[in-house]
């Protein structure tokens, strides 16, 4: 009797073990639409669609725009070969490792797998180090492969990894490729793109022998995998032929403890950006002028970068959870690399003067514009939380251009160039026209910068431009003529209440920072016309209108948020309270639409509205949580497979399913998800102290 029950117990135990190891992998904190893998610049932007994570061994990583990139990792454990990542088993000799878990933080994406008697971890790190300009501008991300024996075993392990010329943005198998540890397409086309991939520069894949012996080779992918399978090392000629990869093999020997090896993958573009005819290079070129030096630097900096990143991960997650709970933390955590990955931090290519730093932002996906003012506006909360100086660094290129007199209008222009990385201005006066939108944004952002940093000097350099903008809003802000707002996808219309709200707050902000109280008075007057005289609210006084005096219209009034953040009191608390209370009544299946014209919503603006709901005297946690949970459900619903898209269907109709992404992917505006955290004050999450990192 006793022995029978013992046997049954053992069997039960075994079957439980089986179901655990064969079960679906765990995804923490959620399974996102796409995992950031190496997302360090607009052109080094490699992702893994979430729906491929369970099949990591045969997954195909992608550039943000969907082009498949070759990036594989194999492990040889006691002579048997397992594919871990990006390597569909090509023969019966190669087995797919078992994927156990996938996890992401603000800077890391981590997968754990089992390969025979080895436990393997693939840890993809993109350092975010906003105050350390050297580290932030180093155009590299990292992959660390970690091996340890399961249950005390000491397997013999070799690890292999490769990339190919797809990373250079030139896909043809006959593309002539220079090879070394780096791949460079032989035909270079400076500052140009094909499908958003840079057509100039060099991709490098670098590693160092640490606890291992390293061999490297360039050869056809299949032959490389086969050689590794047989010998656990690479040897022979290096010849780039069509279909080749550049790969490394690390021999770790018998592993007695957790053994890590690190690869750095980088895209070196020099110059990086064309600013009004002058070449700009990555800030990092103040340290290194060639790719070999950069590789060595990147590998030497790994430990410090990783340590800083791990602290940041914890601090962001803790602060976000404390502010609005775990769902909110998931949203901001997924947004960090996406936002910083749209930036290039630069210095002049000729002088390498580190006192002349300018940041450039690509309006990824929607149209590729350079330093779009109404992209800097929505993303600004992440700067406010982590590194407010970036508000100045991203606006400065525009301010210099405006004060050069080359832009022939008396309102701010939309962007500094139609397509990244050509920040060549619009001297002919033709650019997407959003005069009230951009003038309002500019004044608000400058005020935000001053509140966050206490630096009032910067504004004085550009006082003529700012005054011109303020005067433009005084003249044109109360009944804006037919024009676009930031949500240009929704079309042009006259008398948009949202623009008037923006103008009112911007004028008050301008009056506040300059001490010219007559501008604040004008801003408050606009607010009174909208709210007290009911030009901008419905007759029943339940909400702000989309269009002045159009009683049937409504919109998500995200611009109210800046009144709260900057503590300006342009609108009375009762107005914020009214608008916040209105949202549950117009919520669609999956969120609140942008306005009554459309069935889609914007994740950034929903977070602005959630933060407005937490204004002093409003404190509507129910509405905050409704908006946060809707965005969370969209991010986690498994219906999407692109780098977080900020625009999605909130009300299904016909073929359009609620909760699906509709347009825009990988855009930096997800920095706006930090709106709630920003209410905790500027720099409320401390980042690495090593300012500038020189
Ligand atoms: C940038 O300008 C250069 C020179 O005019 C041009 O060759 C290139 O295609 C442009 N790049 C983009 C992305 O439009
Ligand atoms: C690396 O190679 C050396 C010389 O062949 C050998 O002594 C050593 O054990 C190897 N190390 C590992 C980790 O395999
Ligand atoms: C394996 O190594 C041996 C000895 O160095 C070499 O002769 C052989 O060509 C290698 N085989 C492969 C497939 O690389
Ligand atoms: C090795 O990698 C693992 C997994 O990423 C990590 O937890 C550990 O801290 C690393 N160890 C060292 C010494 O870097
Ligand atoms: C802006 O320019 C237009 C056209 O040149 C002019 O009519 C208008 O008065 C100017 N507005 C301001 C506020 O300077
Ligand atoms: C905008 O509102 C003003 C003031 O009510 C009105 O005179 C004007 O006709 C409106 N513009 C349009 C295009 O409806
Ligand atoms: C500016 O706004 C702050 C509140 O944010 C207020 O304390 C201050 O008095 C204002 N200054 C002016 C000149 O309006
Ligand atoms: C505010 O006052 C200044 C100084 O008197 C004047 O230059 C400016 O035109 C005034 N602006 C408005 C909107 O009243
Ligand atoms: C205003 O409120 C009344 C009474 O609740 C309602 O009958 C009417 O439909 C509302 N008007 C609008 C435009 O919503
Ligand atoms: C978090 O969001 C999910 C939707 O993704 C929702 O089901 C859940 O209730 C939310 N959790 C909390 C604690 O609000």
Helical stretch tally: 16
Q: What's the structural domain tally?
A: 3
CATH architecture heading of the largest domain? Distorted Sandwich
Oligomer: single chain
What proportion of the residues is helical, as a percent range? 25-40%
How far apart are the termini?
74 Å
What gyration radius follows from the Cα positions, in whole Å?
Answer: 27 Å
In round numbers, the mean pLDDT is: 92
Number of strands: 28
CATH top level class name of the largest domain: Mainly Beta
Structural class: alpha+beta
Strand content: 15-25%
CATH topology of the largest domain: Beta-galactosidase, Chain A, domain 5
The rough form would be described as globular
Unreliable stretches: 1-21
* Biggest beta-sheet profile: 9 strands, mixed
InterPro entries: Glutaminase_GtaA, GtaA_central, GtaA_N
Signal peptide: 1-23
Keywords: Signal
Domain Glutaminase A central: 325-676
């Amino acid at each position: 009797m006793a022995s029978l029950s013992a046997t049954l117990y053992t069997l039960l135990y075994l079957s439980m073990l089986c179901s655990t190891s064969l079960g679906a992998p765990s995804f923490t904190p959620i399974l996102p639409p796409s995992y950031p893998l190496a997302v360090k610049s607009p052109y080094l932007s490699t992702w893994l669609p979430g729906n491929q994570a369970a099949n990591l061994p045969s997954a195909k990583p992608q550039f943000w725009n969907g082009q498949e990139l070759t990036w594989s990792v194999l492990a040889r454990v006691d002579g048997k070969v397992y594919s871990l990542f990006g390597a569909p088993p090509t023969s019966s000799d190669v087995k797919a490792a078992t994927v156990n878990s996938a996890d992401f933080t603000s800077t890391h994406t981590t997968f754990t797998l089992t390969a025979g008697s080895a436990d393997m971890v693939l840890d993809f790190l993109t350092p975010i180090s906003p105050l350390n300009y050297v580290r932030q501008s180093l155009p590299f991300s990292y992959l660390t492969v970690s091996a340890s024996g399961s249950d005390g075993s000491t397997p013999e392990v070799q690890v292999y990894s490769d990339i190919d010329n797809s990373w250079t943005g030139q896909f043809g198998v006959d593309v002539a490729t220079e090879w070394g540890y780096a791949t460079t397409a032989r035909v270079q086309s400076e500052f140009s793109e094909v499908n958003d991939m840079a057509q100039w520069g060099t991709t490098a894949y670098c590693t160092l022998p640490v606890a291992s012996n390293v061999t490297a080779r360039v050869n056809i992918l299949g032959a490389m995998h086969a050689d590794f399978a047989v010998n656990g090392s690479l040897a022979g000629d290096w010849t780039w032929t069509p279909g080749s990869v550049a790969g490394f093999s690390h021999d770790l020997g018998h592993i007695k403890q957790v053994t890590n090896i690190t690869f750095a993958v980088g895209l070196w573009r020099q110059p990086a950006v064309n600013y009004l005819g002058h070449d700009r290079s990555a800030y990092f070129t103040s340290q290194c002028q060639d790719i070999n030096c950069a590789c060595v630097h990147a590998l030497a900096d790994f430990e410090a970068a990783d340590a800083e990143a791990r602290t940041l991960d914890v601090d962001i997650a803790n602060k976000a959870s404390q502010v609005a709970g775990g769902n909110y933390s998931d949203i901001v955590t997924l947004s960090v690399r996406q936002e910083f990955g749209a930036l290039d931090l630069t210095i002049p290519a000729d002088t390498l003067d580190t006192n002349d730093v300018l940041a450039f932002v690509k309006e990824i996906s929607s149209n590729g514009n350079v330093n779009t003012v109404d992209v800097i506006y929505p993303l600004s909360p992440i700067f406010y939380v982590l590194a407010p100086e970036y508000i100045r660094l991203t606006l400065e290129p525009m301010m210099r251009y405006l004060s050069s007199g080359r832009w022939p209008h008396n309102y701010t222009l939309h962007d500094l160039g139609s397509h990244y990385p050509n920040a060549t201005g619009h001297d002919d006066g033709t650019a997407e026209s959003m005069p009230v939108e951009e003038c309002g944004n500019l004044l608000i952002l400058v005020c935000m910068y001053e509140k966050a940093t206490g630096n009032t000097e910067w504004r004085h350099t550009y006082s003529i431009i700012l005054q011109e903008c303020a005067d433009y809003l005084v003249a044109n802000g109360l009944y804006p003529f037919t024009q676009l707002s930031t949500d240009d996808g929704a079309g042009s219309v006259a008398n948009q209440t949202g623009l008037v709200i923006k103008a009112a707050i911007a004028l008050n902000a301008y009056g506040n920072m300059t001490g010219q109280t007559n501008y604040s008075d004008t801003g408050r007057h606009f607010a009174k016309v909208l709210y007290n005289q009911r030009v901008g609210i419905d007759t029943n006084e339940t909400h702000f209108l989309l269009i002045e005096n159009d009683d049937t219209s409504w919109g998500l009034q995200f611009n109210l948020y800046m009144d709260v953040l900057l503590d300006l009191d342009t609108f009375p608390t009762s107005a914020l309270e009214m608008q916040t209370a209105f949202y549950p009544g117009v919520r669609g299946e999956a969120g609140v639409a942008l306005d009554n014209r459309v069935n889609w919503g914007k994740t950034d603006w929903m977070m602005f509205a959630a933060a407005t709901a937490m204004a002093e005297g409003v404190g509507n946690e129910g509405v905050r949580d409704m908006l946060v949970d809707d965005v969370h459900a969209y991010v986690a619903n498994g219906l999407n497979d692109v780098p977080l898209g900020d625009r999605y269907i909130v009300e299904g109709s016909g073929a359009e399913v609620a909760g699906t992404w509709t347009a825009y992917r990988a855009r930096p505006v997800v920095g706006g998800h930090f709106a709630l955290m920003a209410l905790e004050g500027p720099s409320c999450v401390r980042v690495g102290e090593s300012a500038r990192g020189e």
